[in-house]
Amino acid sequence: MTLPDKPMTVGAGVFEGVPDSCIAYIPRGAEANYGYTGDGPGDVNRWMGLRIAPHFYNTAVDVNEQARGTVTSTKADEGTEASYGTKITLTAIPTSGHRFLKWADANAKGATVSTQNPYTLTVQNDMAIRAYFTTNLCQVSLSAGANGRIKSGENKYAFDTRATIEAESDTGYYFVMWADEAGDIISSENPYTFTVKDNTTMRAYFAANNEDIAPNFTDEDYLVKLSAAVYGLIKSGSGKYAPQTTARIEAEAYAHYHFVKWTNDKGDSISSENPYVFTVESDTAVRAYFEANLYPVNLSAEANGSIKAGGGSCAYHTWTKVEAEANAGYHFAKWTDGEGNSVSTANPYSFVVMGETELKAVFAVGETHALPVPDAGDAGSEVGEVGEETPDRVLNPVRGNRGDESVYYAEGMLQIANLEGYLISVSTIKGERVLQFTANSEHEQYAAALPAGIYILNAAKRQEKAVAIKFVVK
Q: What letters, b where the CB count within 10 A reaches 16 and e where it falls short, cover 219-230?
């Protein structure tokens, strides 16, 4: 039986006795006129005792940009059509660096439907719902140490866009580096360009430029020329001084390092005080030296075994080796950290000390005659073609084709050994270059935010043999 848009006027009981197989068909869009609310078993789906056949409507759901987010639906596995009255819950899931903005009607030029997330709708007609996502704004906050200022770059940036920051020094000083809130070195480039992934705080540091000061001296003045060895900088004190006046000089160590001593131009130790105060009696050249902080490597063993070697105080960013030994009838299983997370199955196990470390040796029942897991810290060991770590293993340095050079990536820092003076280029496995710089020391640290993936490092230096290293970031 087909009914009109609006219900007819009929007498009570006119359809009494009509079998349940007799179904009434009403026009699409007329459900509300007949009091129809859904395809359920109750009387709400009947008119004057007649069952009403449900209509199905298209329920299309999409997003404004797929790279910004996705949508899940409680009806995802049932196709794009739903019967009148069906309730559907939509959940918008933004990708990293983005946030949900609104649900909109794609057929009505983006008219807002709701800003709730999740959002539950009731099907009453054909609909096209679109989830809108927008890019997060990240704050880049900059500050300057003594003897300089921020020139440009402090602002809000859209996620995954590039920001360029620049600092400028006072007269007689030069820019040294950018460091993060923890004091760790980010870059020595100025201006410095990087990809914004989150709220970022950086500080610019400066040091005295003795050559800018020397030409201003009079015949009566003496020059106090200061310099700093690796892992630190001169904070203050360089300049001209009248004879028999007092000079106060001060050095500052980088994060994870500490000041050790001042030496003269012959390398003789002068003082371990910092700041250091002395009387100027002649032209004086003083150099500051720094050393790595010592961090404890605490070792323990579960039952059925013991620690054989390693542990104690170790210098920051140096290699150390630990080894455990199982009791009879047991074998070594793995090392875990202070929270019980698996660290490595290598025994002995070598790693680079990056701070206070706690390791526990775990043992399992049964003798084993399997070959030991190779330790990438041992000379001559192999770490695989691309240096890929196993699920319970810390990534160790990957060695290149020359043998003495290596590279590894940890805590946002690319660590390169024995490539001083080489032009370094890092590319993705698809050939897209992501980094290029010159290694200025035998143990170069370069701050870089590398997403997970496989990378190729190429190093070139005039007539030296080129170096190529493939490594993995996880």
A: eebbbbbbbbee
Structure tokens at 112: 């807002």
The domains of the chain are located at 23-54, 57-135, 137-208, 222-292, 294-364, 406-473
Domain spanning 406-473: CATH 3.40.50.150? no
How many other CB atoms sit within 10 Å of the CB of residue 56? 16
Structure tokens at 132: 């809108």
Angstrom distance (rounded) from CA 51 to CA 399: 77
Residue 378 near residue 446, CB atoms below 8 Å: no
Is the Cβ–Cβ distance between 416 and 409 less than 8 Å?
no
C-beta separation of 259 from 232 below 8 A:
yes
Predicted TM-score (pTM) of this structure: 0.41
Q: What is the pLDDT of residues 395-425, one digit of tens each?
A: 445 655 555 678 888 766 788 888 888 888 8
For the domain spanning 137-208, the CATH number is 2.10.70
Contact 389, 431 (CB under 8 A): no
Residue 188: closest CA among 203, 176, 202, 174: 176
Region 70-91: mean pLDDT is: 83
Reported as a single tens digit per residue, the pLDDT across 31-52 is 888 777 775 544 456 677 677 7
Worst-scoring range by mean pLDDT, 86-95, 97-106, 235-244, 367-376? 367-376
Six-digit token pair at 468? Answer: 């190529």
Chain position carrying tokens 């054909």? 126
